[in-house]
Amino acid sequence: MAISQQSITINLADKQTLHLRKIFDEQQNGPIVFFMHGAVENGKIFYTHSNKGLAPFLAEHGYRCYVADLRGRGESKPVISKSAAYGQTEAILEDIPAFINKIEQLEGSKPDYWVAHSWGGVLMNSVFARFPHYIDDVKACVYFGSKRSLFNNHPKKLLQANFIWYFMAPLLAKKHGYLPAKRLKWGS
């Protein structure tokens, strides 16, 4: 089995592009899987160029995998910056539908399975709430570490959520115009 990877570019307005990574075995034609990363990550949370990770694993078993990089992340261009004028709303209303439309254009059908990491699950569910017709084509969803809120008082939660995400992240985002997660080593 030879797993192949292919980068697909989706053009948006204002010289912005979305990156979609197709990971597949050319000899197989299994179900289509769509992958959505979390808030401080990119699509590489699901794969490496050397075919390690969940998407290459599923491709070895015949699945046709499509891994998204939201606007400004991963190989989508331009990278996020202080002048970026997009966020969650655009991810829900524009980016994710553009990924699904591109997959349908390439494959002739929408993804059978949707997989999300962390905040990507919240974005995915928001897409389902906004565009309920997508639900008709989905056989199952998989969520890794997706959550809307945290209610415990564990010391790790107090540090990571309360101090870093609820206090430091908004201050840094206000200072820089975006959250420089990669530079802070908080994400990719």
Structural class: alpha/beta
Q: How many individual helices?
A: 5
Q: Provide the domain count.
A: 2
Give helix % range.
25-40%
CATH architectural type of the largest domain: 3-Layer(aba) Sandwich
The number of E-state strands comes to: 6
| Name of the top-level CATH class of the largest domain | Alpha Beta
Structure characterization notes:
With 188 residues, the chain is α/β, with parallel strands linked by helices. It has 5 helices and 6 strands, in the order βββαβαβαβαα. It has helices at 54-60, 88-107, 119-130, 155-176, 181-184; strands at residues 3-11, 17-25, 32-36, 64-69, 113-117, 140-144. It has a 6-stranded mixed beta sheet with strand order 1-2-4-3-5-6. β5 (113-117), α3 and β6 (140-144) form a beta-alpha-beta unit. The model has no long low-confidence stretch (mean pLDDT 88).
Blueprint (SSEs and pairs):
Elements: E1 3-11, E2 17-25, E3 32-36, H1 54-60, E4 64-69, H2 88-107, E5 113-117, H3 119-130, E6 140-144, H4 155-176, H5 181-184
Parallel strand pairs: 3-4, 3-5, 5-6
Antiparallel strand pairs: 1-2, 2-4
Helix pairs in contact: 2-3
Short description:
By secondary structure, the protein is an alpha/beta fold. Helix content is 35%, strand content 21%. Helix 3 links the parallel strand 5 and strand 6.
